[in-house]
Each structure stands twice: as structure tokens, then as C-alpha cells.
């Protein structure tokens, strides 16, 4: 190679390096701009297969994860919804300890810096749940239980109104047949809360079955909500007709895996939603469902 050739070769390498550098810088800026806070409320019903994982980003940049689904698919949802440099969650809420809600939280606790955790400490034996509890202890994370009537301020405009579980005292006074504290059917222990920001509401029900929904109806607890996360992957017991009428949602979301062995969602539940004239989104058909609100109105991305 002549001196001239090698100079040209060097220049070529230099130009290519500059080009790659520029491309990387533009991509980083684009990603950061795409993920920048926009003062809107975002709810991501993550497509995690058969289970629930719901990420809430409040207008004032609080990041709350409700359940983690099974496996590690929740990590993909989080990485797509949050800026690539952001590995923080202000609050983690576990509705109840079944594997299709707690499983993914193990990876989340290992990958994300979590500030606080809400869960009911329901007595329940499973390897996933035990690992979750061990990790919380290892990391010394502050944990909290919740009970009906409590309000969690998520930011200055956004709050979570806890509807369920009722306190042990209240359940006893009512003579209720459900015991969310005994660890027998832990769907009965699902935290149910309504997320409220201005005029917008979304009701998250975990796997709360019909008998819990009926109890809430009897208690006069049930209020309207624009969005309803249908209980228990749209199972037969996931959607009481009276409850659905009272909530009167504009959009119902079912978080469910394609061709799951449980036959979720159940045909009856789908018909109830259809007959009520409610729009339906399903994570098995629509992928991750992102609802956005300016705390007045809402839309699906
Ligand atoms: Zn469950």
C-alpha cells in the first residue's frame, strides 16, 4: 500500500467512526425524547402471558408496578415503557401471592431499585412467593399492608383508593363467609383499588372473584370507573354482572395468555362485557395495552 492509499484508508476509518458515533448519539437522544415525561398518566397493561403486570406512570413521574406476571416478560414491558437509563420504581404492589402475579417481581427486585412495597403478607406457601419475601428482607425494603378506606397518595394529583380487603373486624361484624387473611383461597385476598387522577378512574381488581365483588356491592363501595381491569384473567368468576353494571366502565381490559390451559377468558364473561356495550382490549390479542389520560379524558395508544 502506498503512503497515499494508507492515508485514504485512515480517513475512511475516521469518517466511519464519526458516522457511527453520530448515529449512536442521535439514537440516544431519540430514545430519551421518546421516553420523556409528558405530564400525562400512563397505564400499561403489560403483555406478560397468563397473568397480570400493570405499570402506572403518574403525571408527576411516579412509577408504580402492580404485580409482575409469571416469568420475566415484565422486564421487556418495563424497558419499553421507561427510559433506558431509568431502573427505579417508587412503589410495587402485589395484589396476591399467586405465581402469575408474583413470579416476575423476583426479576424486577433484582433489576430495579424499588422504594416501597405494598402486599398483604398473606400466609401462603410457594417457592416464588418465598423468594419474593426473602428478597424483600435481604434488601431491607419497607413493606406496608393496606385495608379498605385507605388512600395512597401517588403524587399530588393521583391517588389509589383501597376498596379491598376489608379489615378482619369489619368482616367479622358482617359475618362474611370470605376470609382474605387465612391464606386458603388467596384470590380472596386480592387488593382491589381505584386509581384516580382528576376526572379519570381505573379500577384494578387483581384476581378478586365474584363473591368479593358482590361483597363490595353490598357495602356500597362500588363507584364508576372509566377503565376496568377485569378480575382473574376474565375467568367465569372474574366479572360479576351487577359489579360490571355499577362500575359502568368505558373500557374493559383482560390480561391473559393466548391458548392458556384454563380457558380464560370465559365465554360468559366476554358476553357480559359485550352485552354491557363496553369496549374490550385483551393482552393476548392486542399485546401491551397502554391507556393514557390527561386526568380529564383518556385514550388508548
Ligand atoms: Zn390468583
What does this 3D model show about the protein?
- By secondary structure, the protein is α/β, with parallel strands linked by helices.
- Helix content is 34%, strand content 22%.
- It is built from nine helices and 15 strands.
- It has helices spanning 3-34, 73-81, 99-111, 127-139, 168-174, 210-218, 241-247, 267-275, 283-286, and strands at 41-45, 54-57, 63-66, 88-93, 113-118, 143-144, 151-153, 158-164, 192-197, 200-204, 227-229, 251-254, 279-282, 289-293, 298-300.
- Strands 6-5-4-3-2-1-14-15 form an eight-stranded mixed sheet, covered by helices on one side. A seven-stranded mixed sheet has the order 7-8-9-10-11-12-13.
- Helix 3 (99-111) packs parallel to helix 4 (127-139).
- The mean pLDDT is 92.
- It binds zinc ion.
- Residues 96, 98, 187, 207 line the site of zinc ion.
